[in-house]
Amino acid sequence: MNSHLTHVAAPEGVAPGRGYSHVVWGTGRFIAVSGQCAFDEDRSVVGIDDPEVQARQVFENIRRCLAAAGANLEDVVKLTYFVTDIQHLTGIRTARDEVFAPDRLPASSAVQVSALILPELLVEIEAYALVRDEGQ
Question: What is the separation, in whole angstroms, between the first and last Cα of the chain?
Fold first, then answer.
């Protein structure tokens, strides 16, 4: 567990979120991960017509991007979801819950979009992370 991050699910006077923290803060090195889609390493789309399977691939891609920066999913403070149908969030949350602890959920936003870069893609997710600096 990364104690350099503080998660607040429901600040005083704010209704609790459903599946996210309203506020996450900490200290350290900032990392931005570009929006990731359900591409495997050969750039083939994984999980055609299945938002949950696509989300699993997206989270794996995010995990690999974070690792390249010396970070991991526990360091994520914010996720932004771009979905072609807001109904896909149910499957996406199922995949998210496989990689994030329920008491350490990142702050999140979800936006329904008319299309992504390819018609087969159902979800794109970008991530922001904060990694503890050495000596902290």
Answer: 14
| Helix, strand, coil fractions of the chain, as percent rounded to 5 | 25, 30, 45
**Which two tokens mark 125?**
């997710």
For 36-69, the pLDDT digits (tens) are 999 999 999 999 999 999 999 999 999 999 999 9
What whole-number distance in Å separates Cα of residue 43 and Cα of residue 55? 15
pTM of the model: 0.88
Strands lying side by side in the sheet with 107-112: 29-36, 123-131, 76-83, 107-112
Cα 68 from chain centre: 16
Structure tokens at 65: 């991007």
